[in-house]
Amino acid sequence: MTAHSRYLPGTAVMPESSLFPLVSGGGLGVMGQLDNKVAVISGGSSGIGLATAQRFVEEGAVVYVTGRREQELTAAAEKVGAIAVQGDTSNPADLDRLYDTVRADGRQIDVVVANAGTAKFAMLEDVTDEHFDLHFNTNVRSTLNTVKKALPLLSDGASIVLVSSVSGSGGTAGYSVYNASKAAVRSFARSWANELKGRKIRVNALSPGIVDTAGIEDALVAAGLDEAGRREWKANYASAVPLARWGRPEEQANAILFLASEQSSYITGFELVVDGGATQLGTWS
Ligand SMILES: NC(=O)c1ccc[n+]([C@@H]2O[C@H](COP(=O)([O-])OP(=O)(O)OC[C@H]3O[C@@H](n4cnc5c(N)ncnc54)[C@H](OP(=O)(O)O)[C@@H]3O)[C@@H](O)[C@H]2O)c1
């Protein structure tokens, strides 16, 4: 069954965040940064995508989230007050269904966050065609189709945020295919910013550093690290960050909100790096 649950706005179920109108945007008498805006976020059931959905709802947006696991997606959407449309971004028919849902609801789209992505470990000698296809389908082709299929619904002046990674400019061993896929995503932001400027549509990339999410944990498990190994790996990475810790999904969400909102109205084709200073201060290996 296809999930298409509605919570806010327009129905009686209120997310927790809307109970505090004076501290969040979009409440009584307080202008939200995304009031009257409609946003679509791919990969909205966990991590950075979920934190972004929550932040956008707090700022007054109607938010559609998509993800493959229906139960997780529906539960996440209920929690933050978003609209769940189950689907796999690497399946064009699922993307059509997502945008058909928005169209059927009589809405245009003001913000697209192409966030769904995957990262698996493989040293060069172990890279298979399947490994390559997984990354380039999920991270590159899906990003392209998520944005391309949104075009007819995008309002003039819309904002597109592509979630890339600091890995796109780095060379972490064992992640060469992931790194290359994220470089492609960063490149899309420049080209599409040029192609869409006539409609005043801005396109920017967000490049997170290491952020504590289920996605990272899964990648480390898939790399064969046991619990102690994962702890050590995480501690090593934290020590290489000038701010001496991992990032939090909410911090990425705040940066995505900046790129999505009028606060960044004169910024396009840009890569915003949110990594605790590691790239700028040259501490990544
Ligand atoms: N965490 C980090 O340190 C970090 C650093 C740099 C960049 N990033 C990037 O940030 C993005 C989000 O990562 P995260 O760490 O927040 O990961 P996460 O917690 O694993 O969340 C990934 C989300 O994407 C969804 N997803 C994955 N493949 C999908 C597909 N084919 N179709 C639809 N939805 C899909 C997942 O739901 P389902 O599995 O149910 O589909 C989930 O909702 C990714 O693009 C990642 O590469 C993360």
From TrEMBL:
Keywords: Oxidoreductase. It comes from the Bacteria. Gene3D superfamilies: NAD(P)-binding Rossmann-like Domain. Residues 37-219 form the Ketoreductase domain. Pfam families: adh_short_C2 (PF13561). The keyword Nucleotide-binding does not apply. SMART domains: PKS_KR (SM00822). Belongs to the short-chain dehydrogenases/reductases (SDR) family. This is NAD(P)-dependent dehydrogenase (Short-subunit alcohol dehydrogenase family).
